[in-house]
Every structure is written in structure tokens, then in C-alpha cells.
User: Fold this.
Amino acid sequence: MASRTTTDMAFQAIVIDDEGRVCADIPESACQEEPGNFFKHVGALALTKSADGLVDPKLVLSWLMTALGAPVALIGLLVPVREAGALLPQLVTAGYLRKLPRRKWAWAVGSAVQGLAAAAIGLIAISLTGVAAGWAIILALAILALARSVCSVCYKDVLGKTIDKSRRGTATGLAGSIASVTVIVYALALSFQLVDRMLLVIGGLFLAGGAWIASALLFATLTERAGATDGGRSAIKQAVRNFTYLRDDPQLARFILTRGLLTATALAPPFMIAVGSEAGEGYDKLGFLVLASALASLLSSFVWGRLSDRSSRKVLIFSALVAAAILAVTAWLAFAGTLAGGYFLPVLLFGLMIAYQGVRLGRATHLVDMADTDTRAAYTALSNTIIGVLLLAGGLFSLIANWFGGEVVLAVMAGMSGLAIVAAWGLEEVQRG
Assistant:
């Protein structure tokens, strides 16, 4: 009983604004288990987010494949395989996952598989080089992405059943802040080369594998009530049926439009670095890039999470505004030829990553709170699948950069973020329900 009391006190200290801890949209039995579940969510997410930082395809894996001598064409597949592989399968897998009354088990298996895939990449780095290493890493990353897609479909549904809507953003934001400390230590080690960089990267891959497996074990201990299993029929029929939500719920369509426009915050960093760095300079800046991303997460995740619990709509609007301003300034400096050198690029990249964290937390909280128990999994799968297609199509920006220059791409992305402000403005305040 003492440990339960301690857990309750810690929970109340973190969600201090929620006087009396009234649960608005989870049953009383789930409300009683909420303090313990809250910290299990935070712990499991902190572990997985730490692992994500240690196995970052945009930074860490691209550096690793370069060091192993893999072809540039294969290195260019890392982000599309990781992002599209994690999102596109969800429209199909959601139908099968709906058959599970308790979806924490599917999430736990998905997390464990990600851990094994990360460890496999570490073994590949030790034993292979060149084209063979490149293809092997791509295959392992594809498996990791598919496992992640299962976790993504299940997580918001489990979160919606175990944590009340006024505290979901706080849980995810707190986990992000905790994880960023791990990534910052890792980034500092990379920056100052306290240990051989290749040894650090390989060690980070194995550490990430252990973190994902530990997260699976922790998440399996959640107290989750059995949920609805309707819709767990034919995956193809369910996928077609999910698209009807776009017609029946205009708010869902507007939300997906907003999220689609804000993919600019995820796609822009490589182009920012490309237009602001001298040839070959980025290869030695792995630690700096990881550090900038981790610091942005540390300083903003918890704040964005708390603000999302009050108004995820306003978080999306403000994040889009910040992104539009930063990308517009970056494009302007690039056109003027003054972005390279000095401290312009580090500051702008840091600011964009803060906006990116706001987008991530705002859209996650908004989707969970706008849906109900029966539609949450389908909404998540549909949204993620459409965004996956858009991210895959984002490869066209590379062609635009090749033809017209990276500064044009940044200007287009600034415009996308500006349009996202208009789209998000029409979203409902779902936290008032």
C-alpha cells in the first residue's frame, strides 16, 4: 500500500493542475489504476524514444553506412524505408489488431522486434562492409519499421484506455524530456570523441536494442481493460471502410491535411544542412546534429505536452507559425548566400526542431482526443497511412533541390507550414469535450 501511496503522490505532483483527479473519459476502474499506468507509459516511452535517438536514420545510420562504404543510392533509402515502412502498413494491420481486446501485447511484441532489429544492425556493422552492409542494414531497418507500425497502431488506443484525456500529453511529453537526456549524453560523447566514433555508434545500436526489449517488458505490465474488437474482420474491407471516415468526419480530413502540410518540419533539416554546409563538412558533425535535436526535445517536449492537454489545436497553430518563420528566414539567408558560416544554421536548426516537437505532440494528442474508443485505432491507421504516402512522395523534394536548389525547397516548405496555420485554425478544440 505504501508504494501505491508514493505512486499516487508522485502522480499528483506531476499533474498538479488536475485537482481531485477526475477522469473524464475512462472508466472508474481504469481511473484507479491510472497512477501506476501513467509511470509505466512514461518509462516505456522514455526507453523507446531513447532508442529512437540512438538509431536515427537521418543522422546515425546515414553516417554508419557512409563509414562502411555503402553506395549513396542505398543511403538515400534510409529515411523513406524508415518512415513509409512505419506508416504505410497500418491501414492493413489495424484490421487484424482490432481483434485483440488488449493491445498492449501487440505493442510489446513490436517493441521487442525493434530491439532485435537494432541489435542486428550492430552485428552487420561489425561483420559487413560496402554494398552487402548497405542492403543488410536496409533489410533490418525495414523489419524495424514494420514492427514500429504495429506499435503505432496500438499505442494511442492503449493510451486512450488507460490515461485520461487531460493527462495524455503530459505523459508523452515527460517521456520525451527524459529520453532526450540519454541522447544528449550520447551526442556529447560523439561530439568530443571520448571514444572511437564507430565504436560509439555500434555500442549505441546494441544499447538501443536493449532499451526496446526492456520497454516491451515494462509495457506488458500495464493494467489494460479489454476493449472493443469490432472491425477486426477482413483487412482489405476494413481498409476501404476506414476511408469513409474522411467523408463522414470533416474534422478528421482537416486534421490529416494539417498534419500533411506539417511534414515539412520532418523533411526540412537535411535541406537546411545541405544549403548551409560546405562540401563534406556535415560528415564530421554527427554529434552536433544529434545534440541539436536532443536539446530541442529536452527543452520543449514537456511544455508542448502540457500545452497540448489544454489545446492541441493551438499547439499545432503555433508550431506551424514557428516552422514557417524559421524556414522562410532560412530560405532568405540561403538565397542571399549568407547562411554558411557563423551561427545562423545552428540556431535555425534548433528552432525548427522545437517546432517539430510541437507538431509531434500536438498532432498525437489531438488525434487521441478527437476520436472515441471505437474509432481511435481506425483514425490512427488511416492518418498514418496517408502521411506515409506523403512522406514517400517527399522524395520529389530531392529532385526539386537538384533542379532548382535547396533554397527553393526550403521556400516551398515555408509555404506549406504557412498553409498549415490556416488548416489548423479550423480544427475544433477537442480538449473541451
Observations:
- The domain at 26-224+236-432 is CATH 1.20.1250.20 (Growth Hormone; Chain: A;).
- Confidence is low (pLDDT under 50) at residues 278-283.
